[in-house]
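anyone seen this seq b4? input:
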Amino acid sequence: MAPRCVALKILHAIHDFLPRHRAGSEIYALDLCRELSRRHEVGVLCAEYDPSQPHGSVVSRRYEGLAVRELINNWAFSDFSQTYGSATINAALDQILAEERPDVLHVHNLLNLSFDLPTLARARGIPSVATLHDFTLVCPSGGQRVHIAEEHVCYDIDPDRCRRCFTQSPFHSQLAGGAAGLPCSAFPPSSASSAPRARSCPWPPERATGPGAATGARRWTNTTSGSGYACSGR
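predicted toks r here
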């Protein structure tokens, strides 16, 4: 007898989403959502930079039949630690989890959201799985480990180069604009690069799989083996 497929409610979390942002991880997530929606109830949680909307507000929309909850993150933070763990952002994310009540949270990217998202899900009894598509957690150049302005491929993580690259990225402009409370016209929305935020993995190292995962290290700061990590935890 063939195993019975139990329909689940799956929420996919990603740093931004279509139609405004159309890159590799966004397209991958969309294709996966399309396939999973044939058997499950699927939704998307993403973020957007839009100073015309209140920071921390949530917009509900649909894209190609998928329900999308879009968190407005205008980088209105008073210090660097809030860029990856803001009380305002966490409260909005926790409210979304309470309203959506997914059976599974699938994280594609925590950028623009919060490193606390898996912890918030766990507190509500929601298991998390994650796919790391690139080096976003350690690279300010769109997770590609390329210093575009100097046409340099970053085989090794060099903090001095990261600082130079970050200040040349549109992400830096958005962060500065959010802190200053500048209007949308000063820093228009864009598919910005990510900040170099080498922080602890929110999942236990024994549950990490993928290239380099055998080390059990919680910090993914010196990996040169390529993308394709996956973590799971609950």
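The chain is about 25% helix and 20% strand. The CA atoms of residues 163 and 222 lie 16 Å apart. kinda curious what u guys think
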